[in-house]
Amino acid sequence: MTSTVDTRSGFVDAGGYQVHYQESGSGAPVVLLHGGGPGASGWSNFGRNFPVFAERFRTILIDQPGYGKSDRPEVQGQYFTFSADALLSTLDALGVEKADLVGNSLGGGTAVRFALRHPDRAGRLVLMAPGGLSLNVFSPDPTEGVRKLARFGAPPGPSKEKLAEFLRTLVFDRSLVTDELVDERFEAAANPDSLRAMASMGASFMRPDTFEEGMLWREAHRLRQRVLLVWGREDRVNPLDGALVALKLISRAQLHVFGRCGHWAQLEKFDEFNRLVLDFLTDGGK
Question: Residue 189: which of 39, 81, 70, 43 has the closest Cα?
Answer without folding.
Answer: 39
